[in-house]
Design a protein that fits this description.
Layout (H helix, E strand, L loop, with lengths): L2 H9 L13 H12 L10 E7 L3 H8 L17 H17 L4 E7 L9 H21 L3 E5 L6 H8 L6 E9 L3 H9 L12
Antiparallel strand pairs: 1-2, 2-4, 3-4
Length: about 200
């Protein structure tokens, strides 16, 4: 293995904070293409990514909250209560989730009945793709946070992304710049113990 690749793997870590910046489309396509590799013809890739920008975070938050449009909070003259209040609380929680960094990549699992692998194995391999994507993005200088999340209404979320009935969102990769202070702190920390043992 090339030393630079091993160095990228050893230095990658989940960013605690993401600044609201995002890679350009051409750069992101290059990174994803490299991370995807070349799947075998008999076992095609069982996943795809859908990107949304920070500007689209409110719409994503609404879909995550089971809402088909942004909630109406009124003009402030009348207090919210009951169902309105619950919807607004759910939306605010989802908005905090969706506003990370400058871009969100939804990792979508799409099973292929013609593949030799079972659906369960396909799903496991699709889920593992986020680890390779994280390493590739970190290697390109971007901070990453992986975050799975359940939605109260999968149909609304599927409609937002235009997914087929058989597709499933496994989670989101949030991308942004890492603050300089956090990068310095990460580089100054001691390396973790290698989780490897040998049987004699």
């Amino acid at each position: 293995m090339a030393a630079p690749f091993l160095r990228i793997l050893s230095q990658r870590r989940r960013a605690a904070t993401l600044l609201p910046e995002a890679p350009a489309r051409a750069e992101l396509e290059q990174i994803v293409r490299a991370a995807a590799g070349r799947p075998a013809p008999e076992d095609p890739s069982g996943w795809r990514l859908i990107a949304t920008t920070r500007a689209q975070a409110p719409q994503l938050a609404a879909a995550l909250s089971g809402l088909r449009s942004l909630p109406d909070i009124g003009d402030g003259s009348a207090p919210l209560k009951g169902k309105q209040l619950r919807r607004l609380a759910a939306f605010r929680g989802s908005l905090a989730f969706a506003m990370r960094g400058g871009m969100a990549l939804a990792l979508v699992f799409r099973p292929d009945d013609a593949a030799q692998l079972s659906r369960k194995r396909q799903r496991l391999e699709a889920h593992a793709a986020h680890t390779v994507l994280e390493a590739a993005l970190c290697g390109a200088g971007w901070g990453v946070q992986w975050a799975p999340r359940e939605s109260p209404d999968q149909e609304v979320l599927h409609d937002y992304y235009g997914l087929s009935e058989r597709e499933e969102i496994l989670g989101w990769l949030f991308i942004g710049r890492v603050p300089v202070e956090e990068t310095r702190l990460a580089n100054a920390t001691r390396r973790p113990r290698v989780p490897l043992e040998f049987l004699d």
